Fold this protein.
Amino acid sequence: MLAQASPWHAHAAQRTATGLAEPLSVPARMEWTTRPGQGPGADVLGSDLRGKRLLELGCGPGHNAAHLVARQGAHVTGVDLVGLQVRRARSHYGRLDNLTFVAGHALRYLHASDEQFDAIYSVFGAIGLIVPELLLPAIAQHLTPGRVLAFSVPHPRRGGLSASGDDRPRRDHVTLPDRTRLPIARWEFDTARWEKHLSRAGFWITSAQEFRDPRMSHWPTTLLIRARKL
Ligand SMILES: C[S@@+](CC[C@H](N)C(=O)[O-])C[C@H]1O[C@@H](n2cnc3c(N)ncnc32)[C@H](O)[C@@H]1O
């Protein structure tokens, strides 16, 4: 069954079953962290995003993409591995102009397209879930010098864990709405290891910020990295 083929499909299927896929109002803020209202917003991607072409890798239900289009005037393409997520994103925000949702693997999308973007971003999305040695160079192909790549990932030290001591992925879990935990592979790098991989792919880091969510624990929960193409 497809639902067993990918934890992300099961995740989308349960979310779709529990929440109606109906038109939603556009969020007032872009969220990068686990705690809505915390940290920076769309300004991470640039101070004036009007008419800018943005790509989101692992867009899920499309809340951030919708914000960037409707409140910032950007043109956004959101890619997600799971067709159900894309269907849900279209039900929520398909009415908006300049917003396109595409179903597919982020790496395959990047390899198949020759479009250039003003910024590429991921919020707990595909970055960290795909081999960085393949994904970061593929992203670099779609950005000219000076353009921004920004992504947030679960902090490698969340819950008292420690960051990877090597370049290999570790086992993590997706927690479904019914609390089932399904295993996934995740690259759990600290900033220094991201910096090594980003610089090999032709990027330099302009900021790395960590965020806490006191409701969850005193450990950092989110790592947000912003880089520019060299
Ligand atoms: C934790 S969700 C985050 C969704 C969204 N960015 C948000 O903040 O609500 C991770 C998303 O990444 C997608 N994803 C996982 N692997 C992917 C891949 N290889 N290519 C594209 N999307 C992927 C999943 O289907 C899921 O929708």
Q: What stands out?
A: The first strand starts at residue 53 and ends at 57.
